[in-house]
Each structure stands twice: as C-alpha cells, then as structure tokens.
Amino acid sequence: MKRKMAKLAAALTMSAMVMGTLTGCGGSGPTGASGTDSADSDTTAESSDAAADEAETEIPATETPEDGTASSAEDIGEPNGGDEVRVWHYFEHEAAALNALCKQYNEMQSDIYIVPTFISREELMKQYTIGAVSGELPDIGMVDSPDMASYISLGVFENISEYLSDWEDLDQFYDGPMSSCMDSEGNLYGLPNNSNCLAILCNMDMLKEAGFENPPTTWAEFKEVCEATSDPDNGVYGFAMCCISNEEGTFQFIPWLYGSGATVASVDSAEGASAFGFLADLVNNGWMSKEVVNWGQGDALNAWVAGKAAMLQSGTWQIANLDGEFKDTVTWEYKYAEFPKSDNGTQATVIGGENFGVCAGSEHVAECVEFLKFMQTAENNAEWCEVAGKLPVRGDAVGLKDFWTADERYKVFNDSMAFSVARGPHESWPTISEALYKAEQAAILGEKTPEEAAAGAAEVINPILEKVPLPE
Amino acid sequence: MKLSMAAKKRREGYTFILPGFIYMMIVLGYPLVYNVMLAFRDVNVKTFKAGTDVFVGFGNFVKLFQDETFLLVFKNTFVFTIGCLVFQFTIGFIFAMFFSKKFTLAGPIRGMILVGYMMPMSVTAMLGKNIFDVSSGLINDLFMKIGLINAPVEWLLNGKTAMAAVIAVNCWVGIPFNMLLLTSGLTGISQDVYESAEVDGANPFQRFIYITLPLMKSAIASVLMLGFIYTFKAFDLQFVMTSGGPLNATDVLGTYSYMLSFTQYEFSLGSATAMVLFCCLFVIGLFYLRMISKEDD
Amino acid sequence: MAKKEKMLATKSGRKNVINCIIALIIAVVFLFPIYWILAMSFKTDAESFGKIVTYYPHEFTIDPWVKNLSDREFLNSLRNSAVIAVLSMVLSMVFGVPAAYGMGRYKVPGQKTFMLTFLVTQMLPASLMLTPMYLIFNKLHLLGTYQGPALAIASGTVPFIVVTLRPYFKSVPTSLDDAARIDGCGVFRSFFKIMIPAIKTGIITVVVISFLNGWNDLAYSMTFNVTPEMRPLTANIYKFKSKWGTKWNCIMAYGAILVLPVIVLFVFLQKYIVGGLTAGAVKE
Predict the structure, then answer these.
(1) Are residues A363 and A287 in the same domain?
(2) Whole-number pLDDT of residue C44
(3) What is the model's pTM?
(4) Structure confidence at residue A59 (pLDDT)
(5) Which of A74, C31, C48, C191 could form a disulfide with C248 if both were Cys (CB 3.0 to 4.6 A apart)?
(6) What architecture (CATH level 2) is domain C72-244+257-281?
(7) Nearest CA-CA distance, residue A427 and chain B, Å
(8) Interface of chain B against chain A, CB under 8 Å?
(9) One digit per residue, pLDDT tens: chain B, 297 residues?
(10) A380 and A439 co-located in one domain
C-alpha cells in the first residue's frame, strides 16, 4: 500500500514536471509541407517571417500524454480499497473525460479501483500482440474497432457473453459497432464505446477567395476547388489527407474506394482503379503534397490548421480539437461538408470507433464487465460523446442530447452515417488493410499506375476473402 | 593423483577459455540453431501461442522467393552494399594514400574524421533524414545555392533517390573506416621500395599500379570482404532514416526480417529472411576466413 | 625515421601547407554533420522550422536542450542507455578478457575451433538473432528487462574482445609470468596482478568500445524492450521524433546528448579507440 502511494506520488510529480516542459515543445507542429523556395529573395524572406510567426503563435502546445503513464489519484480518485484494474487506452484529448468517468466509478463502488493508462495507438497495438504471446495484458483494453476481430482470434480478449446475456440495454446498441465486438459465432468480447466518421473540412476563406461559395459536392467540383486553391510554390495545397502506411491510411482511403462504386472485394474493378487514380491525380497536379504518405491524421490536421491546405479529410473527433487547442489558431470561417459524389453518383464515408474489451487472464472479469456497462449507459455514452466529440453507439443515447443535430458540424457527420462503410470485421483485416494502404501509396508516389495498384491490392485481398468473406 | 605439467596447463587454459566460449554457445549458438528450426516451421503469433506450428520444409523460402516485395528487398540489399562499397572503398583508398603522406596535420585529422564511425547509427540516420528533407533540408538548399539543381528534389519520397541518400549517409561512416583499415596496410609498405622506384623514373601512377596495388592485395581483399559483411547486414540506418520506405525501396534483408517478425509477427518468415541474409554473408565469410587462416600459418 | 620525416617536411614546406589545407577541407566535410547536429540543437523553434535553411543559429537558444533534459521520459531513457551500456560492458569483460588470455597464452586442443567460433560470431548480424532471441527471452521472462539487451549485445562484444586482446596477451614476455610463478603467485593472481596491468592499453580499448557497443545499440533494445520506459535513447528515437514533430531543434538536441559521450570518449581516448578498431576489424 505504502509503495503504491509512493508510486502515485512519483507519478504525480513527474506528470507535473512533464506538463511544465511540454508546453513549450510539445505539439507536433505542421509537418513541413514540401514546397519550393522561391528564387526571389523578397518572397523567401517573407515566407520565413511567416514561418517564424507560425512557430510562435500558431503551433499550439498539445499536451501529449506520456506513454505508459497511469492517471494520478488526483484525476481518478483516491484508491477505494478495491483491487487495481488496469485500463489501457490511446485517448489523448479525451483522457481528462475518461479520468472523470473513472473517478466517478471509483467513488461509487469499492470492488475494483480503475486506473487508466495512456499508451500511444501504435505502441498499444504492439502490446496486445506481444501480450497474446507472453500473457502480459491489462484487465481492460481499448481497441480500434476494425482491429478487434484479429485480436479476438489471437485470444487477447475474454468472451464476456455470459456476463452480458441478461443486460437488457444490449438491444439499444447499433448493429454495426456491436458486430465489431463479436467473433464469427456471435460471442461478445467487449462493448463499443463510440463511433465516428469522416467528412471534408473546408477553409471557406480560401474557397471563397478562389471563387467558390460552397464546398464541392462532386469529384469533378472537388478537383476544381483543389486546382483553384493550390499554390504549391508556397507550400499551399488544395487538399490534405492522411495516406500513412498504417490503419489510419486505410481508414482515410475507404471513402474514396467506396465512393468510386468499388468495395474492398472489388478493388481491382475499373471503379477501384479510378479511386487510386483520383488521389494520384491530386498529387500529380500539385493539389496535394506528396508528403501525405508520411502524415498521420493529426499531421494532416496540423497542415490544415497552419493554412497549408484548403480542404482536409477530417474526423468527427477533430471538432473537439478545433474547439479546444486550435480555437485561437483557426481564425477563418470553416465548414464541414459531406464527401463529394463520384461521377457515377456514389457517395461514401467510413465508420470508425473504439471498443473496450476485457482482456484474457484478468482476475476480475465480472467486475470489469460491470465497469464497461457503466461506461456505456445511455447517459454516460451521450455525455462522453459530447465531451470527446464522438457519435453515440446506442440508439437511446441519441435522444438525450441534441448537439448531433443542432450543431451544424456534427450534423454533417450524423447525416454521413447513412452512407458510411464499416471496415471488416474480419480476422485478417490487418493484412487486407496493409494491401490497401500500400497500393494507395504506390499510386500516389507514382510507383504504380492506378490499375496496377488496384490489381496489386486485389492479389492479396481476394484470396483472403475467398476463404472468409467480409460480412454483408 | 598428480597431474602432468601439460595436463595442468591444459586445464588452466580451459578454465580461462571455456566460460567465454560457453557463453557464446548459449547466448548465440542456441538461438542460431533455434533460428534454423524456426525457418523450417510455420511459427507466428497464433501457432506459437497455441503450440500448433508444424514443419514446412522449404515452404517459407519458396514463399519468400515468390514474393515480389522480398525479391525487391533482396535486390536492394545488394544495390545498397555494392553502392556503398564502390564509394567508400575508392574514396577511402584515396584518403588512406593521402593521409599516409607526411604532413603536419595528417595524424590528427585522420583520427578526427573517424568520429562518425563511432556515433550511434540511429543518430546518423536521424541526421540523414533531416538533411535530405525536401523543404528544410540542407542538401536541397546547398545544391540549389551552387546551382546543381533548380528545384528541390524529393529525396526520401522517391525510391531511387532515397536509396542514393541512404548510401550517401552510409558512406559518411564507411569512408573513414575503409581509410583506417587501408592505412594500416599502406604503412606496412616500406618507403624504400617507393624511393628506389622513383630513382628508376616511375611516375606516381606507375608506382601505384606496380607497387602499391600488388603489395596491398591481401589488405584490399580483406577490406572489401569486411566492408561487404558490415554493409550487407545494415539495419539501424534504414530503420531510422526511411523505415525502409518509400514502399520498401530502401528496405534491406535486415529491416525486412525485423518487419516480418515484429510488425506482422510472422516469426518463421522473419527467420527465413534472416537465414537468407546469413547465407549470403556465410559465402563471403568463408573466403575471408580462408584468407586470414592462410596468413596465420 | 623521425629525422627523415623532419627532413621531408622542411624540404617541401609548401607541399606541407597544401596538404594541410586539403586535409582541413576533408575534416570540414566529415565533421560537418556533427556541427550540424549541434547548430540545429541551438536554434529556436521558428528558425529550425523555417523554410530558410540557416547555417548557424541566428538566434542562439539552449531551450531544446533544456526541454529534453527536463523531460522525465528522456531522463528515464538516458538512464536505460547507461545501465544497458554498463551492464553489457561488464558482461563482455567478464567473459571476454579471460578467454582472450586463455587463447593467447595457452595451447589447448580445439583452439582452432574456438578461434574460428569467435571470428565468425563477431560478424553475425543482429537481425539474425532478433527473432530466435526474442522467442527464447519471452520464455525466460527476459523481455522488458535490462539483462535481455545486455546479454545479446555482449554476445557480439565478447568475440570482439577475444580477437582484439589475444595479440596483446601474446606479446607479453613469458618471463613476466614466470617471475610471478616463482614469487608464488597462483594462476589467477598472476592473471589479475600481472597480466591485466601489463596490457593496460588493450584493456582501455576494449572497455571503451564495449561500452560504446552497448550505448549505440538499437536493434536488440528496441526489439526486446517493447515498453518505452525500458528503452534506451537510441530505441526511443522514434517516440521522440513523433513527440517533437517537426521540431528539428529538439530532435537534434536529443541526438546531440546521445552523441556527447561518444565524442567525449573519442576526444580523450582517441588512440585507444582507433587502435581497437583496426585490431578488431583486420586480423592482428
């Protein structure tokens, strides 16, 4: 007990120290968008001034939590005498809200003491896979919904069906998010926590200056806006997105793939190739930086916030960033818009979200399930989504708040859910995903023609789907 | 029982040698054997956990050599190694000859430029990433200032230029090292041979061709083989500087093996890749060992 | 020889100057990257981020250093680096030095095999060992510890020590340990009291290089220690790269701190290091 206290005290002082030091150097600034230095010395001098200004005023200090840092007693309540239950998550700006929820739970019961620990997404995924081998897992783990199926098949999560069988609230959960918590036999391994999807975030000042009063609604218009707003010589592009070589890249590619009329199963169709071709065109025409292949979604947002991109492929959760850390930086008028329709009239976006599951080997499965149920009550889910900028996962939560329809920005996402596509669930999703982002990168970098890229992806994906098809 | 003097000596000898030898057998030998076993089975996270892995013979190798990416990586490893060897050996040789001249700063500077070799490769690689950056990199800025290029080059976003950049950074480390090794070969040549050649009217080029090269033959061979061995197994540089990208264009067998084992958790494929790497080194290593054991006799 | 050198130098004073100038240019080119790391690490955020590339810090600041050095996670990695380096060095010395002595001063059956083993293992790539060691260490619960990487690193350093020190031990005149024997020194006492001091230079060389081997390691620590809090600086470069984003000044300060011990050791112990490099790489 004494040791625990000492540990907590240490963690506290350390996090205080870290907070202090991070404010100056913390956030990842707008990733150096590639651009040409103008030969004209006057303009270069100007742009360096601009860069200097950016660095001083525009780069906000995001307080990225430390990997592996457990929340302090101050945030989650004093130990309540119950056994410690470790929760691993990769919520960054939502961490405070999560802590508050844990505090509430720690104070209302004394069976278990919930201690959330932040671990960055990539690191967390690694930990689960390694944990599957070595058995070192937390009690409760958060996971990106399309990855859950593969972790279930690895045995990372515990089958909790029996603990939930008599919970009548279960019917209230939407089928899509719920199915991502199940194995092929319908056993439950966790509960969905939130949903989100993608839309197009427009810098309306830039669009208007280029002569567009409204965001584009078709792929053709989209290209027009890109052309008119791009200024590659000054590192300004019409569009920014994330094409990084991990799940985030696939996540951002899916709307274009399905928007073209293709699906993951028909990636090598003419439509599929047109999706690759569309994005490759953006880069080839100088409307999108080639560096997107190194950008995560956060980097792309940084580029947009720095005024380096007129439009951004943006997720629901980023509204919270715009209202929070970037509140003073974004001085221009902006607007969220649904994804444009492709030439054949198809429109699509992608559904994302996180699940929480109880990990295999936990000594407190029943208690953990109780906590998950508490997290996902209608009230808590609605509350959570408002604070964290998410969409709820259960029908009866929607009615409890009105910001989904009242806030113009959320409304776009809410409406987009109607044509949003889920990834998987499929136990080989990581392999499918890798084939997709690699093909996308190959097309963007010009290593392959769109057709070759599409065919290359299909070569990997089709045999997998022949064995186990994707759910309808 | 009284041991003979020779037996006692032998026992003493073993007492000193065996701990180190046994350490190597346990920490290195066993994993090495285990690696061979892995390469012929189908161990991944799932089968490892469940203990259901089976013997697959050469299955993993067949799989690898049918895989486009692996073949690319295989080729990359040779391109990288040979690219590095050509530059670092040639320039290293020139430097070695230059610094073997007697002038005031020869010694100090020859020692100084070796510092790059001692730096952690991960820092060198990070530096490489910085100086080859498109917009804020030193290389583009410098090349534009001296008029070598008109527009910034997307060094690390382009397969071929990325490989060139990686080779360049490796040469920064490799040149001083090659120089050092060749210097010790050069100092072995007696100055008298040169002086008598000079008297005979041989010009510097002739002296190089007819004296230096033949006398340096074994030193050159060993430097080239060692260079091959050290460059072929590169890992840190690519891992940090490009992560093997863009699109595996700078991936080498070392990084690819790591990727298979520790991002895809296909342990057997990773081991098989490492085995391919090992076999290539083994061939060169045999030559090297034969050469030095000849010298030993 | 020294006389001749002097003669040559005076004979061609101009040649000497020209050669020195060329040598200086070479030094500038090869030391520039180190200057660049330092220069970047003293730039302000704006300057390191700016589109104009500056060749020296126009506005000098020690902020990036302060930010790194006051970061708990950084200090933690720094400690890990030190612990792993020292641990692997000690392990290597304990197993390597006696073996080098045995190989150098005794003739035992199987010596050729031993020597071959040490020569071959010295060249084995880390990437070959990663997968099997990872799975073995997993079973032995050595993942996420200091011992894991230290054991693995030492397996590369032990043969290096043997190959490097063997000639040193060989060169010690036999009369020296015979004298020790007569004085009544046991084998081990004479090893510690007579032999080790007799090859002091060689010992310094292998201590320094063993330490640097551990300090510079990336592959083993990164693979075996998956949690960032157990990783040394080299393996956490990735984490800090994403943490500092494009703030190259902070990243370079990170690199500078990582390079600093290397440079300090190099400046003070250059001749040992350089000697060791040659001995280790080319045979005797």
Answers:
(1) no
(2) 87
(3) 0.83
(4) 36
(5) C48
(6) Orthogonal Bundle (1.10)
(7) 12
(8) 45-46, 48-49, 133-136, 141, 144, 151-152, 154, 157-159, 245-247, 265
(9) 556 888 888 888 999 999 999 999 999 999 999 999 999 999 988 888 778 888 999 999 999 999 989 999 999 999 999 999 999 999 999 999 898 888 888 888 888 888 888 899 999 999 999 999 887 789 999 999 999 988 888 899 989 999 999 999 999 999 998 998 888 788 777 777 878 887 888 888 888 888 888 888 888 888 898 899 889 999 999 999 998 878 899 999 999 999 999 888 889 999 999 999 999 998 888 888 787 777 654
(10) no
Answer whether residue A30 shows pLDDT above 70. no
DSSP state letter for B3: P
Q: What CATH number is given to the structural domain containing A163?
A: 3.40.190.10
Residues B130 and C247 sit within 8 Å (Cβ to Cβ): no
C-alpha to C-alpha distance for B131 and B21, rounded to whole angstroms: 44
Superfamily of domain B24-296: MetI-like (1.10.3720.10)
pLDDT of res. A338: 96
* Shared-domain flag, residues A202 and A182: no
**A107 falls within a domain:** yes
Q: Kindly report the nearest CA distance between residue B153 and chain A, in angstroms.
A: 10
Answer yes or no: do A54 and C49 touch at CB < 8 A: yes
Within chain C, all domains assigned CATH 1.10.3720.10 are found at 72-244+257-281
Q: What is the DSSP letter of C229?
A: G
Distance CA A208, CA A173 (A): 41
> Any idea what DSSP says for residue B250?
T
Residues 6+ positions from A418 with CB-CB distance below 8 Å: none
Looking at every residue in chain A, the average pLDDT score rounds to 83
Pair A200, A337: CB distance under 8 Å: yes
Q: Which residues from chain B sit within 8 angstroms of residue A441, using beta carbons?
A: 246-247
Please give the Cα distance from A338 to A463 (Å, whole number).
33
CA distance B116 to B80: 19
Across the interface, whether the CB atoms of C274 and B114 are under 8 A apart is answered yes
Q: Could you tell me if residue A244 is inside a domain?
A: yes
Domain count, chain A: 2
- The residues near A441 (Cβ < 8 Å, ≥ 6 apart) are A243, A245, A249, A293, A447, B246, B247
* Beta bridge pairs of residue A353: A195
Cβ contact C24–B105 (<8 Å)? yes
Average pLDDT of span C165-186: 81
Contacts of C52 (CB under 8 A, 6+ apart): A37, A44, A45, A47, A48, A51
The pLDDT value recorded for residue C72 is 86
Residues of A whose CB is below 8 A from B247: 438, 441-442, 445, 447
C255 touches chain B (CB under 8 A): yes
Instruction: Return all residues near C111 (Cβ < 8 A) that are at least 6 apart.
Output: C103
Three-state DSSP at B135 gives coil
* Residue range of the domain that includes A289: 197-349+425-467
